[in-house]
Design brief:
The protein has five helices and ten strands, in the order βαββαβαβαββαβββ. With 177 residues, the chain is of the alpha/beta class. It has one domain. About 11% of the residues have low confidence. InterPro entries: Peptidase_M15A_C, Zn_M74/Hedgehog-like. It comes from Limnobacter humi.
Amino acid sequence: MHQMSAPIQSQTRRTLLFGGIMSALPLWGWAATNPLWLDVQRAGERYRMNLLQSDGYKAAAWMLRDVQADNTVGQPDTHLLLRLALLQRWVAEHYGYCVFDITSGLRMPNTNAATEGAAHQSRHLPGPSLRFRAVDFIPRGVDLSKVHTLALHMPQSGVGLYDEHLHLDVRPQSARW
């Protein structure tokens, strides 16, 4: 397992905090001084990263890449990463620690077209600068329905429960399926 927690330059940290994740944290001012951990695995790799550091964001982008499109790396929406990390924290507090096994993050148009049941306007698809707003994952070691119940409390999110995984995305109004 890789752990991304090395200190970064204050200028880089300031840019990341106030230009990205901190803009998503109006109610959680504690995040400026505390790490925001996300522990994910995919395709034999596992990273536990602090999203408030630039190398943490880069690791998250790598783990949410489109593995079917030559490992194309996009720019995950910072609000999406925040929700994913907070959900993981809630799961740990209520049911025990678990790793999120990423099944899909960024989907390039050809990958999305080849994905059964994928929406034509999926939030997995990249927008400008390859920014995307959705992730599918399996919580390892915790019942899927329990994590789904917690995810339903995420504001301005799309939350979908499937047989094998959960879907989480960022949107103006909440949606549930």
